[in-house]
Amino acid sequence: MVRTTVKPEDVPQVDAAIERLFAAVHRRQPAGIRYWYGRLPDGVTYVALLELDDGVDNPLLGLPEGEQFQEELRRHVAAPPLPEPVTMIGSYRPA
Fold first, then answer.
1. Nearest CA to 12 among 46, 35, 62, 48?
2. Per-residue pLDDT tens digits for 20-53
3. Residue 61 Cα distances to 12, 42, 43, 49, 74, angstroms
4. First-to-final CA distance of the chain
5. What is the top-level taxon of the source organism (predicted)?
6. What is the mean pLDDT of residues 48-68?
7. Can you give the residue ranges of every domain in the chain?
8. What angle do CA 85, 81, 34 make, to 5 degrees?
């Protein structure tokens, strides 16, 4: 999990960058990942969750859109991103 806080005035640009990234992910449909991005109620803190199947390398790192997203996000952060490990207790993903 990664938590990132952005400048309030940059929320629309970050939302748009996330939408572009997910459009690329949906087009490419990489196998072995589950990916989620959301914004917390404070309106400026984003949380990303990425789960990789055993033996699967992070395919987002190889996507041009993934690199573009990281570059754009760096321009909008108000504080350094906080990567935090998460222990999955349960999950559901419909077929």
1. 46
2. 999 999 998 888 888 899 999 999 999 999 888 8
3. 23, 28, 26, 15, 15
4. 24
5. Bacteria
6. 89
7. 2-81
8. 50
